[in-house]
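anyone seen this seq b4? input:
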Amino acid sequence: MKKIAMISALVVATATAGFAVADGRGDRMMKGLDLTDAQQTQMMELRDQQRATMQAMHAAFSANVRAILTPEQQVTFDERMQKRQAKMEKRDGKDGSGMKGDRS
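predicted toks r here
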């Protein structure tokens, strides 16, 4: 069970890193590069592709984990994933709180 929890945490962390680029926090890396309009468009397309890839990987991983678990473990897993998602959304200001960047 610890192995599943660690793998789950790793996937979420990886997905979060991908979303960090996709939600604008990665823009700091692009400042000072003087990207052309075409390059900026390409970067936005690349970020969209990255987001889609990460979402698909996360969904596939979750489905594979759930297939291993008993029904009772699935309930616990689902609850934990929902809590983690809510926490990430709150941290990123997607819950309507306007607290983007608040890491409390």
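Confidence is low (pLDDT under 50) at residues 16-22, 99-104. The longest helix spans residues 37-68. kinda curious what u guys think
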